[in-house]
Amino acid sequence: VSAETEPAGTEPARLRGGRVGVLRRLRRRRAAGRNPHPIDNFTFKPDIITVPVGTRIVWQNDDDIPHSIIETQDKFHSPALDTEDKYAFTFAAAGTFDYFCGLHPHMKGKVVVTP
Amino acid sequence: MAQDDKDGLDRRGALECMIWAGTGVLWTMAGGVPRSSSLLGISAASAQAAQGFSFLQISDSHIGFKQPANPNPLATLDEAIAKVGALASKPAFMIHTGDITHLSKPEEFDNADGAIVKARLDTYYVPGEHDIVDEGRGKAYLERYGKRTQAKGTGWYSFDHAGVHFVGLVNVADLKSGGMGALGEAQLAWLADDLEAKTASTPIVLFAHIPLWTVSADWGWGTDDAARALDLVRRFGSVTVLNGHIHQIMQKVEGTVTFHTARSTAFPQPAPGTAPSPGPMRVPDDRLRGVLGITEVMVKPGSQPLAITDSVLAKA
Questions:
Q1: What is the pLDDT of residue B14?
Q2: CA dihedral angle for residue A22, residue A23, residue A26, residue A31, rounded to 10 degrees
Q3: Of B36, B39, B144, B209, most Cβ neighbours within 10 A?
């Protein structure tokens, strides 16, 4: 039984003991291992990130101009990130989160959080 | 680069000469049709316009920028202001078309103000996207610059000078995902109201940060609802649209509307399509001042296009 098959809102690690919890932690760590996700040449790289619930995503601005990360429903938003500044957000709920740069709104990205 | 209204000895040129000949008839060109009006009937403001005046545009000073394209934008802003001070004829005032600062920090605004005040000119601002990234999303900008102009909304306003109507617009606030610059419903409604009482012969100058025409959709260099603002000025005989944002000169003439973007005083950006992204462009140190500059706008009587002259900080 893997965490993917659990309906949203349950807590398999607590209910079923250590094994699933370890798997989930490993998956989160693997997802987070790609951190930081670069913002480079006015592009979020990659523009679609898929991670399990509970993952902390870190973005880093590698451009010589500031960018920001604004979720379209304003579920989260970063301040303006100067060169090499980072912004992190932990996705505690499953769902799809569309975001864009508040300074250059043609820059778009998406985080898909799986249960 | 300079744009001037040099038509040679054609009919238009002859009409222009008549304006200056003091015949008691003021000729204007509206939609290519010459019209006359008695000098006795025009207001003092229009009479002042008949003398002509100039104003200055500076843009994109980006105070706080520290990257290799220009580690010291305060020094180049100082040089731009020194150039303003050295002009042969004193401009009536100055406009700054936004990105005063790089990150909307109080000390960045302070440093910019400290340099710009040395021009000893009334300066009218509109915000760039870099000027409204404070915690209050533009509150700091409005507190500093909005009061004097009695700015509405996110900072738009208008004023008159010597018969010319100037409108400062904000197209960098509340931007939508996937879009470009935007004016928004509230500002467009205000603009319609603001222009309503103006006669078609009133020269109009619109200024805003992001170009009000699409220079590059891929790079977001345009304003999604600009066409609605331009519809509102369509009936005027002379419309000049001044923008910044793209850190290079671009010009376009469409009917009675002249579009012009100014150079930055901080760093250049690439021409559309010539680089992977519109970020700061690094040029050799000894060439930087050849791609930064200021813009002087001459307002002459009548409704011919305003004469726009760009000059660099130093010849490369």
A1: 37
A2: -140
A3: B209
**Is A105 in a helix, a strand, or coil?**
coil
What is the model's pLDDT at position B174?
Answer: 87
Q: Which two tokens stand for residue B12?
A: 């238009």
Sign, Cα dihedral of B38, B41, B45, B47: positive
Structure token digits, residue B243: 């923008």
CA distances from residue B24 to A28, B40, B47, B72, B306 in whole angstroms, order as listed: 82, 8, 12, 53, 23
Query: pLDDT class for B286, splitting at 50, 70, 90?
Result: very high
Question: Is B69's Cβ below 8 Å from some Cβ in A?
Answer: yes
Nearest-angstrom CA–CA distance, A57 and A39: 13
Interface residues of A toward B, Cβ cutoff 8 Å, are 41-43, 63-66, 68, 70, 72, 79-80, 82-83, 98-100, 102-106, 108
3-state DSSP of A66-85 = CECCEECCCCCECCCECCCC
ipTM over 0.90? The verdict is no
Interchain contact, B220 vs A102, CB within 8 Å? no
Coil vs helix vs strand at B294? strand
Strand partners, B37: B26
B67 interfaces chain A, CB cutoff of 8 Å: yes
Q: What is the pLDDT of residue B108?
A: 98
Q: What is the DSSP letter of B146?
A: I
Single pTM value for the model: 0.83
Residue range B139-198, pLDDT digits in tens: 999 999 999 999 999 999 999 999 999 999 999 998 999 999 999 999 999 999 999 999
- Residues facing residue B30 across a β-bridge: B33
Using pLDDT thresholds of 50, 70 and 90, give the confidence band for residue A18. Answer: low
* Contact between A42 and B103 using a beta-carbon 8 Å cutoff: no
Provide the residue type at B91 as one letter. Answer: P
Query: Do B227 and B207 touch, CB atoms closer than 8 A?
Result: no
Antiparallel, parallel or unpaired: β B53-58 and B293-299: antiparallel
Q: N- to C-terminal Cα distance for chain B?
A: 14
Distance CA(A39)–CA(A109), nearest Å, equals 10
